[in-house]
Amino acid sequence: MPSSLDARAHRGEAVTAAAAPDAAAGSAVPGTGTGRATAKTILFGEHAVVYGRPAVAVPITAIPVTALARPVEGPASLRSALYHGRLDRIPERLRPTGAAVSAALDAVGRPSSGVAVEVRSEIPAERGLGSSAAVAAAIVTAVSAAFGRTLSADERHELIQIAERAAHGRPSGLDARSVVATGPVWFEDGAATTLAVGGPMTFVLADTGVAGRTREAVAAVRALREERPAHVDALLERLGGLAAQARVALGTGDAASVGAAMDDAHAALDMLGVGDPALDHLVAAARTGGALGAKLTGGGRGGCIVAVARDADHADDLVAHLRAAGSPAAWSTHLEASR
Ligand code: MEV
Description:
By secondary structure, the protein is an alpha+beta fold. It has 9 helices and 13 strands. It has helices spanning about 95-105, 130-145, 155-170, 175-180, 215-225, 230-250, 255-270, 275-290, 310-325, and strands at about 10, 15, 35-45, 55-70, 75-80, 85, 115-120, 185-190, 190-195, 200-205, 295, 305-310, 330-335. Strand 11 and strand 12 form a beta hairpin. It binds (R)-mevalonate. (R)-mevalonate binds near residues 171 and 299. (R)-mevalonate binds near residues 42, 171, 172, 214 and 218.
């Protein structure tokens, strides 16, 4: 398991919009439980979704996290690239991971049981790619399975949300839904539905190398909204409107319109105060590399950008171009048409 960013360019596997909406795998035989989830990229609606606007996200199924859980005598423990030890001594910044284990034990009615959890993640942490939600999803699935329980999608969602609240206060639920999806997601009013895609589309993700700060960014938007409500609400409305436009453009396979909406969304997110010079640099580099549009993705203030490539071959060129522009890691992910 890479503990730092994998610097290779990585071509993601195709994601089919028509696929089943739930990718979390788990075994319900008491003994060893397994759980799996994946990275995600938010195409439209981050931050605005916290205030009830719609959003569009895509799971990146080629970047997975798996968890294994086994009931043990004695205290609960965690083994991962970031920590190995007792759960009650977990470092503060991994508190959401600890919260996921505890929430799952509570849910199966075994709050004081010992469990040994091992997490293997290929998702770079703090990059706006949903690492915290995906790790939580894999853990709650594995821990409940280790005690013989298969969670319903809604039960699992509530447990992931407990971990996400420990991560950044008032999560919308978008990340929790997207990391267990197998196709593009339209998220509105707390619910995720599978989004139709009218033509193939390839996206490129590139890491700035700067750790994203979702908790801080979410708090900054809240503070700005208290200070300048009309200004912030207009930006949130614009971001929600762009998500709605993009839904139509994705449905007709109109990659140029999706790209144009991304350019607008990046500007609006910057005005919300969640931008960063490193994000602007890569967004500009994506455009000079021929992207149809680009924006920050996820919480912002660092993390990754997402760009629309002209096609799969251009995505490879764009990955190389963004790496040459200083991105330490870049990936592409492809959406097949669902109709
Ligand atoms: C973080 O990946 C997405 C945000 O919109 C927060 C949330 O939806 O809870 C910034």
